[in-house]
Write a structure and sequence with these properties.
Blueprint: H1 2-12, H2 20-26, E1 30-35, E2 40-43, H3 45-51, H4 72-84, E3 89-90, E4 97-100, E5 106-117, E6 123-131, H5 133-155, E7 159-164, E8 169-172, H6 174-180, H7 184-187, H8 200-214, E9 223-229, E10 235-247, E11 250-259, H9 261-312, H10 319-347, E12 356-359, H11 360-371, E13 377-381, E14 386-390, H12 392-408, E15 415-424, E16 427-434, H13 466-476, E17 481-485, E18 491-498, E19 503-504
Helix pairs in contact: 9-10, 11-12, 12-13
């Protein structure tokens, strides 16, 4: 039947000499011809592949076999309506159409109809079917993307403004409306320079023209600080970054705007504080030197007078008088040491100091020699201490204060002090361990505070500056200092220093 019909159609359609089968087979779109009863008379290979049928299997098949069952009733009515008023048109305009694959799965289709009529008056329809699954997926992805972008645009904390290449405003998000005080409808179609105070307003159009002519970018793709103008006339500092977009033939610009008024106020406040701190430091420095000069002069006089009295009138003092003179002389010396300690403490971190490579092996020899510990002390220094980049006097002060404290507070007949070093990754970790009386945990923080001592100053000569000075120096070099201790078993002071290019020394020197 199909071959006879093909030949008749060829003659009636005026394309005799060509094979209709060849014409359909050569078409890339899926195509079929049905009669008024809804039977498939011809189906090309593209259609057979689309619906999962073999060659020739669709001939004589009811058209409803290609439609999901739930649409059969409506489809028959639509087919009858079409044959009542046949014309070339798209099927199901405004509605989603679905095809049914041979395996039962459904997919979206788009159908175009064209009426045919043979010379015998037989009414036929040529249908072209396109699978729109990928297009629908792309449309869905596009809609989801647009929904996400719309959500970002509407809910963004920063103000977002879009303009065309002439500088005409198109969109303002809610954050931009709140920031500038305008509703989007108020500014749409107006030049974006209305949101800028002078001189930015005057320069803006020139910048856009320059960019259009030369392509030279001054703001696009960069962030910069400018000023914005609100509807109420107030000017505020803002951070602006601009991105260029190409939408077809149109060139658009999106500006991200952030109000930085708070940040500017904070920066101004910080500058004011830094100026106050600088002034205070300068006043402190002057005060420290004035106090040093004004206090040390009379102290030296008191010390000299006390030494003279203690020497020349020694025989005239009874035991109580001699003890009073000893306390007087010791306290004068302590006061002088305290003034020196305060001066040292005040200089740390304020005076720019040159760093150099310091071999700690040699430095510890010098520190121990300078302290001249009594014979009952055994001080050992770990070999192969590193060489560190630091101001020599500062690291000497740290070790001097830690070792001298261990000597001062030793309560054992045989004192043991051990200096060690460990590799702690990016830092060196140093330790000064002793077998002294130990320190209670509750005092661990207090002893690093200025002027704090745990023993009576008349029993142990101390200014209370040494550990505070050591802590300040260590922290100035981005290290930290702490201690571990058990009462009666001594304590260990730890501190770290960044390696900063330091290297291990090949030889060590015992102290």
């Amino acid at each position: 039947m199909g071959i006879v019909l093909q030949d008749a159609l060829l003659k009636n359609l005026g394309i005799e000499g060509l094979s209709l089968e060849w014409l359909l087979a050569s078409a890339t779109d899926a195509m079929l011809i049905v009669d008024q009863g809804g039977h498939i008379l011809l189906a090309n290979p593209a259609l057979e592949r689309l619906f999962g049928y073999g060659a020739g299997e669709m001939l004589g098949l009811a058209l409803e076999a290609l439609v999901p069952a739930r649409f059969h009733g409506a489809h028959v009515g639509q087919r009858d309506d079409y044959f009542g008023q046949p014309r070339a048109r798209a099927m199901g305009v405004g509605a989603e159409l679905f095809g049914r694959h041979r395996d039962g799965r459904e997919f979206g289709v788009e159908v175009s109809l064209s009426p045919l009529r043979t010379s015998q008056g037989l009414a036929l329809v040529l249908a072209t079917v396109r699978d729109v699954t990928e297009r629908k997926l792309a449309q869905q992805a596009l809609q989801e993307s647009e929904a996400r972008m719309r959500a970002i645009f509407e809910t963004a904390v920063d103000a977002i403004i879009t303009i065309d290449e002439q500088g005409v405003l198109e969109r303002l998000n809610p954050a931009a409306e709140r920031l500038f005080g305008y509703a989007e409808a108020e500014v749409a179609g107006r030049n974006v320079s209305m949101l800028m105070p002078q001189p930015h307003r005057q320069l803006h159009d020139g910048y856009l023209a320059h960019y259009r002519d030369t392509g030279e970018k001054r703001i696009i793709g960069k962030g910069r600080e400018v000023e914005g103008l609100r509807k109420d006339g107030s000017v505020f500092p803002m951070e602006l970054s601009v991105v260029e977009m190409q939408l077809g033939a149109r060139r658009m610009f999106t500006g991200m705007v952030r109000d930085i008024s708070e940040r500017k106020r904070a920066e101004q406040h910080n500058r004011r504080l830094m100026q106050e701190i600088s002034s205070a430091n300068e006043e402190l420095t002057n005060f420290a030197y004035v106090v040093s000069h004004d206090l040390k002069a009379p102290l030296r006089g008191i010390g000299s007078l006390a030494d003279w009295l203690a020497t020349d009138y020694a025989e005239q003092f009874n035991d109580e008088g001699k003890e009073h003179m000893r306390l007087l002389i010791n306290r004068v010396h302590r006061m002088s040491s305290l003034i020196d300690g305060i001066l040292q403490y005040s200089r740390v971190g304020r005076v720019r100091e040159a760093q150099s490579a310091v071999d700690l092996n040699q430095l510890l020899v010098d520190v121990v020699d300078l302290l001249a510990p009594p014979p009952r002390f055994r001080i050992t220094v770990a070999p192969a201490l590193p060489t560190v980049q630091i101001e020599p006097t500062r690291i000497q002060q740290v070790f001097h204060n830690l070792i001298s404290n261990a000597i001062k507070y030793m309560d054992k007949p045989d004192g043991v002090i051990e200096i060690g070093c460990e590799d702690d990754g990016s830092h060196w970790r140093f330790s000064v361990r002793d077998n002294g009386p130990g320190i209670e945990t509750r005092h661990f923080e207090r002893i690093f505070q200025l002027f704090q001592t745990l023993a009576s100053r008349d029993r142990v000569e101390s200014t209370g500056v040494g550990l505070a000075l050591a802590k300040k120096i260590v922290e100035m070099y981005q290290g930290r200092i702490w201690l571990e201790s058990q009462m009666g078993q001594g304590c260990t002071f730890w501190f770290t220093l960044p390696k900063s290019g330091a290297h291990l020394s090949r030889t060590g020197n015992p102290a």
